[in-house]
Write a structure and sequence with these properties.
Elements: H1 6-21, H2 26-42, H3 53-66, H4 71-87, H5 113-121, H6 126-138, H7 142-146, E1 153-154, E2 159-162, E3 171-174, H8 177-189, H9 210-224, H10 232-246, H11 251-258, H12 263-266, H13 283-287
Helix pairs in contact: 1-2, 2-4, 5-6, 5-9, 6-8, 6-9, 6-10
């Protein structure tokens, strides 16, 4: 169990109040509090006011050597520490970039079209199917799906309104005709009809919890025999983008549908595109390409 001194408890409380007052997202508040709480637990006998560069370097080294922390984990820790120093301790501090491990360039997990179809057909309830199809058919994120309201489904315009997505930006994304029918069937079959949000939990008028959504998708993967696939919810978003790219949709349109701020984030899907890659011929195959005997016959020589 984590043990904190009274100064650490007070500092964590002030961090939360500061972030709430600043209008930071719930996920950011949770992540920053978690990272600073871990740091407080690592130095249980020190007040946050006593932390110095040496302490931060020691903790970052601990993350890398003991926990083999990824680039993303170290970056989140660094951002949390920098925010905490500036806004709670009122001391400027920037974690040097040399303390981060080299960034990992991993291709995102995605499903083939056959795997997506198998996943959808393996859903055991109308609600589970509606959740899976909404993720794949629109490419939205977990929190964006969770906060979807009934009024955000614009069937007449074939689009979904995504409010306050990542970076607090509104946008529109695709609404599949097939998904419209799935959602209508889901709504008809619910004994307790959703009142406000598209997917609600046991408490009427409240959105379904993120963990419940993740569990539902995970169970669908399990029923489909696809449990080995990683990042199950986000893999549907990656599949949406990859399959659009394969269908010939330009990268800038996909960027807007996904709600990316930087086109560089979207270009990772170019590595997953199979439509063009499958047309490429390896130089090795070219070496052993069958000779076209007819093409090699001199023009002056008769075929017969």
């Amino acid at each position: 169990m984590e043990k904190f001194n009274s100064q650490s408890v007070e500092a964590l409380g002030l961090l939360k109040l500061t972030m709430v007052a600043a209008g930071n997202s719930r996920s950011s508040i949770t992540a920053y509090l978690r990272e600073i709480r871990y740091l407080c637990a690592y130095f249980p006998d020190l007040s946050p006011d006593e932390w110095s560069d040496r302490h931060i370097i020691q903790y970052m080294a601990y993350l890398r050597t003991v926990h083999h922390a990824s680039y993303s984990k170290c970056k989140m820790t660094a951002q949390s520490v920098a925010f905490f120093f500036r806004h709670v301790l009122k001391r400027p501090y920037d974690v040097p970039s040399k303390l981060y491990p080299k960034r990992e360039y991993k291709l995102p997990h995605y499903l083939t079209k056959d795997e997506v179809l198998k996943l959808i057909e393996s859903c055991s309830s109308d609600k589970q199917r509606a959740i899976v199809e909404t993720f794949y058919g629109s490419g939205i994120r977990l929190e964006e799906l969770r906060m979807l309201k009934l009024t955000d489904i614009e069937s007449k315009n074939n689009r979904i309104f995504v409010r306050c997505g990542k970076g607090r930006k509104d946008r529109y994304t695709l609404l599949s005709k097939r998904l419209v029918e799935t959602l209508r069937n889901y709504y008809r079959t619910q004994e307790q009809k959703p009142k406000c949000y598209l997917f609600e939990g046991q408490k009427m008028g409240e959105p379904l919890h993120s963990r419940s959504i993740q569990h539902s998708v995970t169970m669908a993967y399990q029923h489909a025999g696809l449990s080995a696939k990683g990042h199950k919810v986000h893999a549907l978003r990656h599949s949406f983008a990859t399959h659009l790219l394969d269908a010939g949709v330009d990268i800038h349109t996909i960027k807007e549908l996904l709600g990316h701020s930087d086109i560089k984030t979207t270009t990772v899907y170019l590595h997953l595109q199979s439509s063009k890659r499958n047309l490429l011929v390896s130089p090795l195959d070219e070496l052993y390409k069958p000779v076209n005997e007819i093409a090699n016959i001199p023009k002056t020589q008769a075929l017969l």
